[in-house]
Amino acid sequence: MTLDLLDIDSLLTEEELAIRAVVADVMRKTVRPHIAGWYESGEVPARELALEFGKVGLLGMKLQGYGCAGASSVAYGLACLELEAADSGIRSLVSVQGSLAMEAIAHYGSEEQRRRWLPGMATGELIGCFGLTEPDHGSDPASMSTRAVRDGDGWRLSGVKMWITNAPVADVAVIWARTDDGVRGFAVPMETSGVSAREVTGKLSLRASRTGEIVLDDVRLPADAQLPGATGLRAPLSCLTEARAGIAWGALGAARDCLQSTLDYATAREQFGRPIAGFQLTQAKLADMVLEWQKGLLLALHVARAADRGAMTPTMVSMAKLNSTREAIAIARQCRTIMGANGISGEYPVMRHANNLESVLTYEGTAEIHQLVIGQALTGLSAFA
């Protein structure tokens, strides 16, 4: 039984469909057999997975050169959808590596920095993270406390970054810090003296993702660690825009996995002498969820097509990210009701997706922040403090 009642697949090219199929196959072989156990244990073999993903061009896949695939925004979105259909934490590994860390180095780094880091990151031999969020500064990065001061011909960095995906396994961190000349970015090797990463444990969401705190204790960096093209907050925010576009697709992947699992369950589960999929209330729930899922796909596809012709705006991305994450978590919760008590079992993916989507709803821009971005575009007035 297909969920694509609008035949959205007909809007995709043969190449796009082939890329989606490749990623789905990689997930089927490398992630799906193990993801329930990884989630339960809170452990995931991130380095091994990065190498597997690098083999099929998933890391930095939109970038040109340096071993990257140079794929379209639509192809990247479809990849994110399949990654997150397996698990949000798996998609986070890929999107932080490519859309944040590699994107920052590719667009704002020097040629020397690009040659040093990007080829290894494209193959998965090197892992990157993106240090913007701080313990006391999430939605307001302009107030960040991390400082970089001149020290002879180099720099000294001090501060703390928090909730940083990939930090515990990263080889390089793109760190954003305040300087006397505004916010600047730095490519910081994690082996540098004064840099330490502590893994965040006890998470009830994104358990199959390596998350950490990065402490920068008077870290001495050479002048060439600075990303020369990154001046002001516009640089990290542009990277976040790219990542959010992928998240808009990814959340819909989690929703699809919930829907497919629930449809399969409802057609097999019998109560009162017949499958529960035959009851009116169950069909009403399924119909509403598939409608929202398909609408979300059309929106994500429209924004990605706009990106491929150079017409995507941050407001478009805010609309897509807000819609996809909000509807995906609603779908996951509704699917759980259809599955009853079985919906909370790790044997099925629904509760795992629902828990993960609690994080996806608020990271890289909370729902409220995206509402305000859209509100400002509508009114011309900023509601930010």
UniProtKB/TrEMBL annotation:
GO terms for molecular function: fatty-acyl-CoA binding; flavin adenine dinucleotide binding; glutaryl-CoA dehydrogenase activity. It holds the Pfam family Acyl-CoA_dh_1. Residues 13-125 form the Acyl-CoA dehydrogenase/oxidase N-terminal domain. GO terms for biological process: fatty acid beta-oxidation using acyl-CoA dehydrogenase; fatty-acyl-CoA biosynthetic process. Signal peptide: none annotated. Its EC number is 1.3.8.6. Residues 231-378 form the Acyl-CoA dehydrogenase/oxidase C-terminal domain. The keyword Nucleus does not apply. Residues 129-219 form the Acyl-CoA oxidase/dehydrogenase middle domain. InterPro entries: Acyl-CoA_Oxase/DH_mid-dom, Acyl-CoA_Oxase/DH_mid-dom_sf, AcylCo_DH-like_C, AcylCo_DH/oxidase_C, AcylCoA_DH/ox_N, AcylCoA_DH/ox_N_sf, AcylCoA_DH/oxidase_NM_dom_sf, Glutaryl-CoA_DH_mitochondrial. Its cofactor is FAD. Keywords: FAD, Flavoprotein, Oxidoreductase, Transit peptide. Belongs to the acyl-CoA dehydrogenase family. PANTHER family: GLUTARYL-COA DEHYDROGENASE, MITOCHONDRIAL (PTHR42807:SF1). This is Glutaryl-CoA dehydrogenase.
